[in-house]
Amino acid sequence: MTVKVTVTGAAGQIGYALLFRIASGQLLGPDTPVKLSLLEITPALKAAEGTAMELDDCAFPLLRGIEISDDPNKAFDGANVALLVGARPRTAGMERGDLLQANGGIFGPQGRAINDHAADDIRVLVVGNPANTNSLIAQSAAPDVPAERFTAMTRLDHNRALSQLGAKLNVPITEIKKMTIWGNHSATQYPDLYHTEVAGKVAAELVEEAWLRDTFIPTVAKRGAAIIEARGASSAASAANAAIDHVHDWVNGTPEGDWTSAAIPSDGSYGVPEGLISSFPVVSKNGKWEIVQGLEIDAFSRERIDASVQELVEERDAVKELGLI
Ligand code: NAI
């Protein structure tokens, strides 16, 4: 069956890095033909058409068509996977309330369009920031879609943490298992090495405590800003790569003996209030995310997780107050 994948913000930086990988089969696997639906705002439609021309020019064997629209109702019609990338960025002098309001104006209508037009098996990944709360806004506008189909991306943070730890210990990424990012995709996120295993040993015991606390955690949490500083533009190819990883694992499952990180609706596990879209250690089985249960949380980790979850509670309360959920 051909799978329809809708990408919003398709003419943006991440869109440009993402669409070619989807069309080449890396999102869903080598046996699944895809149809792409590109949603953009009207002034960016021409740029989206340019990207579509390039997609045509790749002659991807799995690509079975490209649609371009500025109407969410058309773009999400029959969609099986929705990657919500386009968002309103924070500009100088913008208050948090203004930012949330502007994003409510994007993710509310998109959630409604998904509710009314997407396929029954729709899966949604929100990449556009503030990703966790934008996902909550879209979810709340889509009451007929099962709540667990709305997720937000912390896979880039997860991959950054793997890479930083691998470099520190001089081991290949394949030696590292059970990395976890907890909480919000923001500077408060908590990358947890207390359950991570490196060649069967606990990662937190293989590194100095000062490195873990004063170097590793802030490096991972502030990596986005460091990329902007170095590149003069925000992460795009690595963000697209993480979106591919997230959806690929959601659809195809996570490897036995390992887990990954994704922001999914909380069922109350680990003291995270039910319904918040927060990052957890997760496995994917039969096309569904499940939170890894039974991990012991030490006092240091508890404090970090609580701080990030508190930020999510505040964002949720703010969008509630604005009538966006
Ligand atoms: P960009 O500015 O290059 O592209 C965004 C695109 O979205 C633009 O083409 C714009 O026209 C489009 N857009 C705006 N409103 C739209 C709407 N209502 N419907 C459809 N399209 C719309 O931005 P870039 O670099 O591609 O980043 C996109 C988002 O991803 C940003 O919010 C960024 O903060 C976020 N991001 C999230 C990461 C994560 O780990 N969760 C990592 C990196 C970026």
Automatic annotation (TrEMBL):
Enzyme class (EC, first level): oxidoreductase
Report the residue ranges that make up the Lactate/malate dehydrogenase N-terminal domain in this protein.
3-143
Enumerate the residues binding NAD(+). G9, A10, A11, G12, Q13, I14, G15, N103, Q110, V127, G128, N129
Active-site positions on this chain: H185
Tell me a Gene Ontology molecular-function term this record carries. L-malate dehydrogenase (NAD+) activity
InterPro entries for this protein: L-lactate/malate_DH, Lactate/malate_DH_C, Lactate/malate_DH_N, Lactate_DH/Glyco_Ohase_4_C, Malate_DH_AS, Malate_DH_type2, NAD(P)-bd_dom_sf
Q: Does the keyword Oxidoreductase apply?
A: yes
The Lactate/malate dehydrogenase C-terminal domain extends over 154-321
Which key words tag this protein in UniProt? NAD, Oxidoreductase, Tricarboxylic acid cycle
Binding residue positions for substrate: R90, R96, N129, R160
Write the Enzyme Commission number(s) for this entry: 1.1.1.37
**Keyword Nuclease attributed:** no
**Pfam families linked:** Ldh_1_C, Ldh_1_N
Which reaction(s) does its UniProt entry say it catalyses?
A: (S)-malate + NAD(+) = oxaloacetate + NADH + H(+)
Give the signal peptide range.
Answer: none
Q: What does this protein do?
A: Catalyzes the reversible oxidation of malate to oxaloacetate.
Q: Which NCBIfam families match?
A: MalateDH-SF1, PRK05442.1
Task: Tell me its family.
Answer: Belongs to the LDH/MDH superfamily. MDH type 2 family.
Report what the protein is called. Malate dehydrogenase
Q: What is the lineage of its organism?
A: Bacteria, Bacillati, Actinomycetota, Actinomycetes, Streptosporangiales
